[in-house]
């Protein structure tokens, strides 16, 4: 409790020292402070000035710890910095001056009332021994124009407002009806407490404001009347915040901003550049203050335990305005060639050489203790890795390992790795166990290191999908037609108007063959009739001979059919000696196809995985062939692969993403080609992608794709006639092809959790 009171006292004094601005030249000086004891434990303090009148005082109190603070504007201080009293409830009095102002702080053992009056060139404060009496002021002895301040005649709080800043900070604005208000802010856990002294708080403003919807660190603002007049405001905040406040004549503004980590400052600190200071800000203005006293002030402000070496001494002159206390400490240390070492909340300060010698002695003692320590042997089973690999990590220079039951190692002192100079490591491949011989402390450190290294490797499921989509369309229109006529000449010859020479030859041959056949049939008929009459049978018993028929050879003047099987429409006109044939053909084919392949594989982090599925296509080749004919040499059977293959190596990044080195291949049989002397050799359609990509866990990405379009329009026609409008369609055929093919490759990596592993 005594130490906490001391910290608050220094805070009050330093707050008084932090007054800034162009102050007017001091017109009065506080010469000294004295006291008298009165009956009932009362203490009468005399604040004596060099000349009258007494400066207008500004008095306010604090409750935890109890204090009475008196401020004098335009006043210098020549009194002692601290006066111990220890009477009644008064423990002591401290005085400090800065910026032409002086603050006097009366330290109390418990909350007590006081009375004030002016006696000549002195301000007299009578402090009671408890809190049973109210604070009073004997105004009869004070100049009415210089009456002491009270909340009854001070300015009123005219408005309390809250706003959100552009960067998410919360701003509390307290407006006053006039000048003369005094505000003091302090942190109490997760609250900011603002004491408003010498003000009047209207009843309508004594309320609680809920500002949670503004999305700032400020949660609520509660305002109520103070214990001895004035007002108290409690601001509830959430999380780590940076606070600041400033006051003008008629307004007091509190700003609460989220604490932000300075990444650039951390980077500078990591590179050995200027450190980052985040302590509470202080203001110092001292001339030749003892270094030990300055360190004591900083210790009280920081709340840390500070131990100074006996060799720390001398004086230092400081003028620091609104700087963090830890930066002020470093300034003092650099000025006097000192350094610090921190352990928890204890800081040891000593000359730099003294600290360096101490640390060197500690290091030498530790090394000597390790050299003299008893060596012990420990056996560490390895679960997920290889004992030989971990042994190499522990030390390269001392390793001597081998297979079998055991392998051992012990080497020189060079490149000892993580071992002590006398340590050694060996391993047993059969049981996958490390054998370590070292001092107990080093073995404990090695066990902790091995526990970090010997962990299960994360696994990744890689799912891929290869989609081959095709869309085929073919349409053909064809025509065949012809006109032919025949007539018989006087000589019995049949003449065809079919312009084809081959058809004319076939017709003449048919006429000749039919005539010969008819003559033979008639001769046979006559012989059969004669035989029948000779035997007494009538001639009618012999059947008449059948005459041969003549088939006119077919032929088309225009023959442009379709190559596809489709529908056709035929028309024929037959006459006595002529024939007209017309055939229209049309065919259309449509086809859609999809081939979806979905290989998937699980592999460990940074380990390549391969999965294949397909067939080997066999074919025969011939060697030492003397001719170009297939099968004339020595036959050899060979194979070509037509497979679907996924080859991938995943790497899990620190931010739980997956870096993939991936190769996907999909081959398919396309057909065969003739090889002279070697039969038929298969040809392979190959689709392959080889790439690297960074993918989020569970995210699906398209690695690549190929889109092919093949269009063709073919017209076969009789030159000239096929271009005639209308009837030109009888002299041409058309074919239209439209083929599309699309290839897409999708990949989805998924990091498997420990439960799935």
Q: Please, could you describe this protein's structure?
A:
- The chain has 757 residues and is of the alpha+beta class.
- The chain is elongated, with a radius of gyration of 56 Å.
The level of helicity is 10-25%
Radius of gyration over C-alpha positions, nearest whole angstrom: 56 Å
Shape: elongated
Distance between the termini: 57 Å
Helix-strand makeup class: alpha+beta
**What count of helical segments does DSSP give?**
8
pLDDT average, as an integer?
78
Q: What is the count of β-strands?
A: 40
Largest sheet: 8 strands, antiparallel
Q: Which range does the strand content fall in?
A: over 45%
Which spans of ≥5 residues are poorly predicted at pLDDT below 50? 1-26, 131-152, 397-414
Question: What order do the helices and strands come in, and which of them pair?
Answer:
Elements (H helix, E strand, L loop, with lengths): L1 H16 L10 E11 L3 E8 L7 E7 L2 E7 L2 E3 L4 E6 L2 E9 L2 E8 L5 E6 L2 E6 L8 E2 L19 E8 L5 E7 L5 E7 L2 E7 L10 E3 L7 E8 L5 E7 L3 E7 L3 E8 L4 H8 L10 E10 H12 L2 E4 L6 E10 H11 L2 E6 L2 E6 H21 L3 E6 L5 H8 L29 E5 L4 E6 L1 H14 L5 E30 L5 E3 L4 H34 L23 E3 L6 E8 L3 E20 L2 E5 L4 E15 L10 E19 L4 E19 L3 E18 L4 E17 L14 E20 L6
Parallel strand pairs: 1-5, 9-11, 22-25
Antiparallel strand pairs: 1-2, 2-10, 3-4, 4-8, 6-7, 7-8, 9-10, 12-13, 13-20, 14-15, 15-18, 16-17, 17-18, 19-20, 21-23, 24-25, 26-28, 27-28, 29-30, 29-31, 29-33, 29-34, 29-40, 32-33, 35-36, 36-37, 37-38, 39-40
Helix pairs in contact: 3-4
């Amino acid at each position: 409790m005594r130490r906490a009171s001391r910290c608050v006292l220094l805070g009050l004094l330093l707050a008084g020292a932090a007054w800034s601005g162009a102050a007017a030249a001091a017109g009065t000086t506080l010469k000294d402070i004295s006291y008298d004891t009165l009956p009932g434990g009362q203490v009468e303090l005399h604040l004596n000035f060099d000349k009258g009148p007494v400066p207008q005082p500004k008095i306010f109190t604090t409750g935890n710890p109890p204090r009475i603070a008196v401020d004098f504007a335009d006043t210098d201080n020549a009194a002692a910095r601290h006066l111990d009293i220890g009477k009644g409830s008064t423990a002591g009095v401290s005085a400090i001056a800065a910026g032409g102002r002086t603050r006097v702080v009366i330290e109390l053992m418990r909350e007590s009332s006081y009375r004030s009056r002016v006696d000549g060139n002195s301000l007299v404060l009578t402090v009671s021994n408890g809190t049973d009496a109210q604070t009073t002021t004997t105004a009869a002895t004070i100049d009415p124009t210089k009456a002491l301040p009270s909340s009854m005649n001070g300015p009123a709080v005219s408005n309390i407002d809250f706003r959100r800043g552009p960067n998410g900070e919360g701003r509390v604005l307290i407006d006053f009806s006039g000048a003369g208000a005094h505000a003091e802010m302090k942190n109490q856990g997760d609250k900011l407490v603002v004491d408003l002294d010498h003000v009047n708080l209207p009843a309508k403003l004594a309320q609680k404001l809920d500002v949670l919807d503004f999305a700032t660190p400020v949660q609520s603002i509660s305002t109520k009347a103070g214990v001895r007049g004035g007002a108290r405001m409690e601001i509830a905040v959430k999380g780590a915040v940076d606070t600041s406040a400033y006051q003008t004549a008629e307004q007091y503004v509190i700003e609460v901003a989220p604490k932000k980590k300075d990444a650039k400052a951390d980077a500078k600190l990591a590179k050995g550049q200027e450190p980052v200071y985040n302590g509470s800000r202080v203001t110092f203005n001292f001339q030749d203050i003892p270094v030990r006293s300055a360190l004591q002030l900083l210790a009280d402000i920081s709340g840390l335990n500070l131990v100074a070496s006996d060799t720390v001494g001398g004086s230092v002159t400081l003028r620091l305005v609104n700087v963090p206390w830890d930066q002020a400490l470093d300034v003092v240390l650099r000025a006097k060639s000192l350094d610090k070492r921190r352990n928890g909340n204890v800081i040891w300060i000593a000359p730099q050489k003294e600290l360096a010698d101490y640390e060197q002695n500690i290091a030498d003692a530790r090394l000597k203790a390790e050299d003299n320590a008893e060596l012990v042997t420990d056996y560490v089973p390895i679960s997920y890795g290889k004992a030989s690999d971990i042994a190499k990590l522990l030390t390269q220079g001392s390793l001597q390992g081998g297979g079998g039951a055991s392998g051992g190692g012990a080497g020189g002192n060079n490149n000892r790795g993580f071992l002590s100079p006398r340590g050694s490591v060996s391993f047993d491949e059969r049981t996958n166990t490390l054998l370590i011989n070292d001092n107990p402390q080093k073995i404990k450190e090695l066990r902790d290191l091995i526990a970090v290294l010997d962990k299960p490797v994360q696994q990744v499921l890689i799912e891929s999908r290869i989609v081959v989509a095709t869309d085929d369309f073919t349409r053909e229109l064809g025509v065949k037609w012809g006109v032919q006529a025949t007539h018989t000449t006087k000589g019995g010859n049949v003449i065809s108007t079919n312009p084809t020479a081959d058809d004319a030859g076939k017709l003449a041959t048919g006429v000749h063959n039919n005539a010969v056949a008819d003559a033979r049939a008639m001769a046979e008929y006559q012989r059969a009739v004669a035989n029948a009459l000779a035997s007494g049978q009538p001639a009618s018993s012999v059947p008449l001979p059948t005459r041969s028929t003549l088939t006119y050879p077919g032929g088309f003047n225009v023959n442009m059919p379709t190559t596809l099987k489709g529908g056709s429409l035929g028309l024929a006109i037959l006459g006595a000696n002529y024939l007209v044939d017309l055939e229209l053909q049309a065919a259309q084919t449509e086809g859609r196809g999809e081939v979806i392949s979905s290989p998937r594989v699980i592999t460990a982090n940074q380990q390549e995985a391969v999965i294949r599925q397909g067939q080997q296509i066999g074919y025969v080749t011939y060697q030492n062939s003397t001719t170009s004919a297939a099968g004339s040499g020595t036959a050899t059977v060979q194979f070509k692969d037509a497979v679907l293959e996924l080859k991938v190596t995943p790497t899990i990044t620190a931010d739980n993403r997956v870096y993939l080195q991936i190769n996907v291949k999909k081959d398919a049989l396309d057909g065969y080609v003739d090889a002279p002397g070697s039969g038929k050799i298969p040809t392979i359609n190959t689709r392959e992608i080889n790439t690297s990509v960074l993918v989020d866990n569970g995210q699906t990405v398209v690695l690549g794709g190929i889109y092919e379009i093949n269009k063709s329009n073919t017209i076969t026609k009789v030159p000239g006639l096929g271009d005639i409008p209308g009837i030109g369609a009888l002299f041409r055929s058309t074919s239209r092809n439209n083929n599309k093919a699309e290839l897409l490759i999708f990949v989805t990596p998924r990091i498997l959790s420990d439960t799935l592993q």
